[in-house]
């Protein structure tokens, strides 16, 4: 019954948001209350999971969101993204979505997905018209989503990749050897197929872009983006203005690599923490803009960032509440009883089973990493008797864990707000792209099974 009630809660929330245009925060809370009461958590238990899930998500990503959005606002005030987009449009042109998807999948998987989206979303928005006047925004959004999660699940040191490899006793080097080409191919192929889907009338700007965004020159702009230009800072070399992004990326990547190499040092651990790394980036950006605009000018820029931050934090936290209620409802135990790996299953059946378990868990729980980790925990006890290389089963779990990222994910709401998409627009971009990526990567896992069997 937990599965049925979870499905009702999720579909009900989507219906309330899209059909009846009820605010996502209210719709998600209604879903939380229904699911908690329907699955026997009781009034106190339901409230406990709602508040606990909200607090847990805020502890994990609250500062990341705040620092990331403020860095974006300060970079916008320096004209950084406009100049960067101009250079990319000249050198990459219409291939920019592929460049973004491939880069996010292979170069930055060590960065938390929440950090990646808050740093990359502004560039995706700014560059959209240069890619395609009509379909640039959804194409860039889809490329952004699949690029982030292809790296997250397939490429070490992505969090989900490292976790699944560890649970399945797969050496990280082996996982990287198989996962890197699959992650890159998934990102690029999905970006291509997604563009074909968009070209068939799938996108409707009138309903798929946030109605509160102001449309200027065929692209959405938030009213809060009307901030002063830091002219002297804008004259700095582009690479200098990109330091608020580059420095945190280097610090976080260094910390992740050190962790994988089992190297520990207090200073490296401190600076490599994502919260501290982004705070350092914020200080760099703040110093640049403060010298150009003064206290009042930088205050206006930060005020615009705070306005956006509050909106993202609230809807992200409530998304975490729904995930907590679903997890507490007994969903994981129910699925574990329903799906047990058959020791005599063929390679194809074993791969499909692993993929399906991970897909269902992610769809229900709303977390790619939790879905992948839970699926690995269910399958790992019997993986040795399946007659399939463990790395293949691990890759199948990673593939399925990407499927259909939707409204019960806090990332979904961050993505939606940062790119100024409506809920329907985010379902058409992020949900569609990750679903397509899960399907695209599945045959690649079958190919990997043939290679592993040699």
TrEMBL record:
Listed transmembrane segments: 6-37, 57-78, 98-123, 135-155, 175-198, 238-258, 270-289, 301-327, 347-379, 391-413, 433-453
Organism phylogeny: Bacteria, Bacillati, Actinomycetota, Actinomycetes, Micrococcales
GO molecular function: gluconate transmembrane transporter activity
Keywords, sorted A to Z: Membrane, Transmembrane, Transmembrane helix
Protein origin, superkingdom: Bacteria
Protein name: Gluconate transporter
InterPro entries: Glcn_transporter
Organism: Knoellia aerolata DSM 18566
Signal peptide range in chain numbering: none
A GO cellular component entry from the record: plasma membrane
